[in-house]
Amino acid sequence: MTAPDRPVARPRLHRHAAGGLAWSLGILAVLIATWYIAAGLVRLAGDTSAAAKLPFPHDVVVKMIDTAPTLLDAAWSTGSRAVVGFFIGLAVGTTFGVVMIQSRWIEYGLVPYILASQMIPLIALVPILRAILKDSDLVRLYVTAYVTFFIVSIAVLRGLKNASPTALELMGSLNASRWTTLRYLQFPAALPYIFSGLRVAAPLSLIGAILVDFLGARNGLGYLLVASLSIGSSQSTLLWATLVVSLFLGLLFTRAVVLVERRMSFWQPAFRDPLR
Amino acid sequence: MIRPARPPSSDATDPTDPSGPIGEPIAPHHHHEPLAERSDHPIAIAVDHVTKRFETGGGRGTVALDDVTFGIRVGEFVSLIGPSGCGKSTLLRLVSGLVTPTAGTIRVNGLGPLEARRKRQFGIVFQSPVLFDWRTVDANVGLPLQVFRRPKAEIARRVRELTEMVGLADFRSHYPWQLSGGMQQRVSIARALTFAPPFLLMDEPFGALDMITRDRMGNELLQIWARTPGTTVMFITHSIPEAILLSDRVVVMSAHPGRIVTTVDIELPRPRTEAVRESAAFYRYENELRRMLHEAEGAHG
Question: Which single residue of A62, A273, B57, B167 has CA 20 to 30 Å from B77?
Answer without folding.
Answer: B167
